[in-house]
Amino acid sequence: MYKAFYNLKRNPFEITPDPFFFSLPGDTTKRWRHSITGPKAQGIRGDDGRSGYRQTLLVRCLLQLLNQSDVAYAYVFNSRLSPVEFLQYVAGDFGLSISGKNKSELLLVLSNYVISRHQKKLTTVLVVDEAHMSRPKFWRRSAS
Fold first, then answer.
1. CB count in 10 Å sphere of residue 7
2. Smaller CB count within 10 Å for the chain: N or C?
3. Residue 129 DSSP symbol
4. Please, which pLDDT band fits residue 62 given cuts at 50, 70 and 90?
């Protein structure tokens, strides 16, 4: 309806957020790039916020940034997986062979992959959207 009426090329209202309609300030892009590929890149980075603060949209913007680089990444958008399913998904997203492997074998395959890339001075990133959905209850912050 909107697309035809306003002669738009893309549908402006979708169920999932579209980074096409969102512009990040230059500082944000620089900070992300530096925190992922900079000389003092952190091993772990977490960004959180209240529900409705557009974290998924920001994750999608980050993925676009990663697509324009030589960074290998796995993107987990459904974190309600068992530990083995999680490892299978991550390894599969990196394009690693996972058929018939148990948990320890999956960990070894992933570890070798990350170490191999690190030795070549290549960056590897795991992006988990909605990670709070998979945390056990004892991990969650208390209200106090």
1. 6
2. C
3. T
4. confident
